[in-house]
Specification:
The structure holds two protein chains of two kinds. Chain A has five helices and 41 strands. Chain A is mainly β. In chain A, strand 11 and strand 12 form a beta hairpin. Chain B contains four helices and eleven strands, in the order βαααβββαβββββββ. The two termini of chain B are about 35 Å apart. In chain B, about 20% of the residues lie in helices and about 20% in strands. By secondary structure, chain B is of the alpha+beta class. Chain B is globular. In chain B, the strands form three sheets. Chain B has a four-stranded antiparallel beta sheet, with no helix packed on it. A four-stranded antiparallel beta sheet of chain B has the order 6-7-8-9, with no helix packed on it. Classes of the chains: A mainly beta, B alpha+beta. Strand 17 (about 225-230) of chain A pairs antiparallel with strand 1 (about 1-5) of chain B, so a sheet runs across the interface.
Chain lengths: ~575, ~210
Amino acid sequence: MSIFLKNKMLAALIPLTLTLSHPGEGIFEFGTANAQNLQTYQPVTDERLLHPEPENWLMYRRTYDSWGYSPLDQINTKNVKKLVPVWTFSTGVEEGHQSPPIVNNGTMFITTPKNQVLALDARTGDLLWRYRRELPEDLFQLHPTNRGVALYGDKVFLATVDAHLLALNARTGEVVWDQTVENYLTGYYMTLAPLVVKGKVLVGMSGGELGIRGFIQAFDAETGKSVWKTYTVPGPGEPGHDTWPGETWKTGAVSIWVTGSYDPQLNLTYWGTGNAGPFMGEVRSGDNLYANSVIALDADTGELKAYHQYHWNDSWDWDEVSAPLLLDVNRNGRSIKALVHAGRNGYLWLLERNADKINYVHAEPFVKQNVFTKLDPETGRPTYDSQRIPGIDKRAEFCPSVWGGKDWPPAAYNPKTGLLYIPANENLCGALKGKPATYTPGQLYIGLELTDVELLPQKEAKDHIGELQAWDLSVGKKIWTVNFKSHNWGPVLTTGGGLVFLGGTNDRYFRAFDAKTGKLLWQQRTNSGVTGVPVAYQLDGVQYIAVQSGWGVDAQRKQELLDKAFGTKIFVPQGGVLWVFALAK
Amino acid sequence: MSQKDAQSEPVPLPQSCQACHTSRLLNRRTLLKSIFGVGVSLHLAGLATNAADDPKKMRPQVGDLFVFSLGDRQGQVITPQEVPIGGPPIIAYPMDPGTQTVRDGSRLNRVLLVRLMPADFTESTRTATADGIVGYSAVCTHTGCDVVGWQSETKELLCPCHASAFNPRDRARVLGGPAPRALPLLPLQLADGKLTVASPFSGRVGADQK
């Protein structure tokens, strides 16, 4: 029951008219600049997803290999100091704005918390249409955010926090189909940007704190019908099931909340998986496959073809949800088709991908890590310091903290410099103490008191916590590091102009660095903290950089704990704004 | 683990949405009419009907008793003596004493019962307590999580999701964290020695989902 209006005056009244819509359904509005978009929207094809035009940003990390790299070079190290905002757009929503602006030939799509999708004219910032989901009144949002849309054909796909997958008409914002993926009342929710592969829309499930059984599911892009579904916790009779004692697999968590990568040659999608639940490993003794792993799923069938578990029987809340970057690494005279992952567990992992296997190659800590005493040289399996393992009524301190060496904000790789850029947090340790947990559907099932989650800044944290690190994987060496006094929640963009863009700090700055040296070249203070994924695009010969600024979720939570630890009270205002920059004329 | 899954059919929404199509045809006068008149009232009436139809989903009513929402004694009536002095809170559901219907059809009906010394309360809070017990909505006003945490030393209610803290002595005023407003208060009274609801929640429960 939604209403289209093109009249500007009436458009202002739309929120009133749309009280006619039903809970669970959405509200959509037409902007004033839609007519041209209706005519010119260019459908997204498999070919375009495989080989995106340099001027577009069609998926979460722009390319299937998850590099977060744009070849555009109009904005470069020589002129970036002339970068200025050309337009902005207020989203009208608080909390964590983490999604990248997805750009397809002049049409931009952003998402916000509470499952709003905004379609904008990427030249002017005019609103084309707005979709706002009516969320159930009894929904609770542990992570009030959304990480973006996926595009295919003439549709826009949104995974919702009440566990639906929606297909919207890219030209109008109308809901084409609405698929219930799971029951939100039992703790299932979604925050990730879907991944589209060959006509299928792949999503993963959040809810690791609520006793879910995680999975990845593929839906037909045209019809919304389910094609395959693969659990991240194996059931009875499946390989790996014996790594879960008793009935623990049923509520074993292992959520998926960041978009996967895809290797078209192997036809495999690669996903990072969350930790198991409840959080204390002793209540589910065993490796708990496929928690804290990278898993390789056949894109056509969902069959699990290979995996590598970064660490087993987690007790530190170290989700390893970031998808690995797919790149070729020449190391010790050998060319490796690699999977690269900067872990929440503080190790930088270099793995080799094959059709039916993932081989361990090398790993080393990129921040202080005192839990792993050694790694098996053949398999990479870590051995733990037992003093660093928290348990039921057993407090243990460990480094890095529960938010890890790198949380969800994606790293980036620049083929021109050959460097990997990691948004890291250093000098922060933590402590946990568990308690017994009883499962109740839809309730927290973590086995922790809030007061037993501690953040322990080390003395070096007075100097800095946040870091931007640049690594040369061919020699396994950190080339440069930029330090930030603040913790760092900034996703990374790198470009053909030799630049690295990053926000993420509590001082609200968005910055550009020289990709070769790490030298700060430009910065802009924004409305809020920048936890959005930055992108680059080009239209009519003009290159733009776009990013959302909107602090919230774990960044806000961690800030509160840091304020307690340091005796500070740092105010980071909330409320999302999209910023678009170009070179001053 | 992998399975062909053809279970669920998507809701075939608006590709052929008749209502949308029809609404495009509405002229401006009709639209304005629906905005300010019939449309809104129909919608509100619809909501009211849904809520009123199901006693399990109705918000707490005057005279309701309380039952344990979790644990071994789930569903059993809570007596004032069973609410521990000084906390921690008990998470309860209201129950219609006549029909014995527990109002657990919506998690927005979860109530925190906290017992403190009467002198601990501010005046405006104390008037809503019964035998030192105060009732608050258990649903955080930030993003709707259950406020299940308890800081025993400072006697604060804590939301485990985003660390909002509320003062049970003073109408659940926000002490810290992102919650935009206090937890709604549920005034209590003793009736024949039983803990009951004295009047409805002081405000809208839950988070703003818009």
